[in-house]
Amino acid sequence: FLLPRCRGTTRLLGPAVACVVAAVAGWTRQVWRRPRWYSMSKRTAETLTSASTVAVREDDSMQGITVPHAEAPSTPRSLASAAVLAEAPNFEASEVQYMELRDAGKRLWEVTTAGKKLSDQILTRLQRSDMAGATSLQDSISNLPSFESALGASIWADAEQRVQLCCAKGVSTFLETFITCLCFQSFLQRGVLTAEVPGRWLVGAQDYDDELYLLGVIGAVREMERYAVNRGQDLDLRSVRVCLGVAESLEEVLMQFSFRNSDLRTRFDGVKYCVKRLQSLAYEIDLAHQRAAVTARTAKVPEVEGATAPAGIIPVIDLQFIAGIKMRYDLFDEGREQVMKQSRDVIKNAKNAIYALQRGDYKRADALLVSCAKDATDVHSRIISGYPRLRSGSFSNAMEEFVEALAYRAFRQDKRLLSMTQMQEAATIPFALSLPEYLGGVMDLTGEVGRLAIRSASHGRSARQDVEQCLACVDAVNNFVMAFTELPTGVAKKTYALKSTLTKIEVALYELALLSKGVVSTKIDGEVDSAH
């Protein structure tokens, strides 16, 4: 500011400014030359100071809070003697059955996991033309325990339990990949896509085995697409055209099926894209050959091993075998539609029976339950006995509703909770109830019992015994469910509703205590006094 205006003063300030700059530079060099430990220790000191400041602030936040001295409370309240059910349920048989199914499922899971891993390795060997390695791995799969030995003779003899465990323990994934290996290897060696599956790796349910076979064949076509891409690196047009012919034939064969919305339908849609990809490969490789012929730089593309192999007389797809699968698939699909329709009737009658029991109309409820048993027996004997896979889904949901209605009737009329053996006798059906169906129905029962408890609580203090009986029923189901280390699929999600119902009934009992005359005081021994 002053320098431009005072030329004489500039001569005096120049040396002063130079001295100041020199002093600052010297101080900077001294600071820079200080040992590193000095700066680190200073940072550490700052960190410790800030931490102690935070600790002091936290201590300050707890000042002024008064905490009472520790004192043990009274023991949790137990159910009164009047709340005990008329007959204590015995769930020992259900627990034993669950343990057997769980152990069998673990053994089956070990087999399918090992088989799936080996099958993936076989596909890798086949893509790299390592036939000896693929054969060795197939021998390893043959040495694995069969499905029957993994499940045990008793469970294997029950077709419905067998299919349910196979669906839940990875059999589908293993068999689909293994069949893909067999079909792809058969194509590479003989040019035939439809290979034969060893009998020890069949589940024994024809519809289930057929669907897995179709999935495996479709998977083999996807492997053929990868094989064609690799052969395209050598411009092997003949091999690519062979793959294209097989894929187009399979697409035409599968077009004859009426696939419903399922995983099989999704995989079938992928065959179309596979055919399109192979067509593009054949077209591009053919153009490459034509360019080579036009330029005349390469007289001929080198032949690869097997490129001039003569065509066989065996068809690439066994049409009679696939036709048999289609016929069985159509029958299965028709049976599935009938099961879905008649299962809705069973569910409807079971729900109406529950509504009748809520109104106390036992006569109508019994008639509806008899109709449920008759319809369920008819569906099972005509369709499900021949197609065990249809047991799950709509029919299983119907049986859960039927079990819930039977259990609710036993509780309303006799104040007892039925075990699985007693439930089987009350159902009067010739086939056995499954453990997931029984568990699902009994857990759904707690919702109806909870509604009954709330409705009974509206009558006031006099209904306390009825509400406690409802609490005893829900508590017994909760203890039964807690005994399982792992609940079946679809049943575990009901545990939250079960615990919620248990809590609501306990709150209703608390509110009933508040509705009594005078002041209610609870003694240490659990007795209740009314002070008038």
Please give a quick description of this structure.
With 532 residues, this protein is an all-alpha fold.
Features:
532 residues, disordered N terminus, disordered C terminus
Radius of gyration: 39 Å
Measured by DSSP, the beta-strand proportion falls in under 5%
Distance between the termini: 97 Å
Q: In percent, how helical is the residue content?
A: 55-70%
**Oligomerization status of the protein chains:** single chain
Number of strands: 2
Mean pLDDT: 83
* Morphology call: elongated
Number of helices: 18
In N-to-C order, the SSE pattern is HHHHHHHHHHHHHHHHHHEE
In spatial order, strands of the major sheet run 1-2
- Extract low-pLDDT stretches: 1-10, 304-309, 518-532
Main sheet summary: 2 strands, antiparallel
What structural category do the secondary elements indicate? Answer: mainly alpha
Explain what you see.
By secondary structure, the chain is mainly α. The chain has 18 helices and two strands. Strands 1-2 form a two-stranded antiparallel sheet. The model is unreliable at 1-10, 304-309 and 518-532 (pLDDT under 50).
List the helices and strands and how they pair.
Elements: H1 7-32, H2 36-61, H3 92-127, H4 131-142, H5 147-151, H6 153-157, H7 159-168, H8 171-190, H9 206-232, H10 237-254, H11 263-295, H12 319-358, H13 362-384, H14 394-414, H15 420-427, H16 435-457, H17 464-482, H18 495-514, E1 519-522, E2 528-531
Helix pairs in contact: 3-4, 3-8, 8-9, 9-10, 9-11, 9-12, 10-11, 12-13, 12-14, 13-14, 14-16, 16-17, 16-18, 17-18
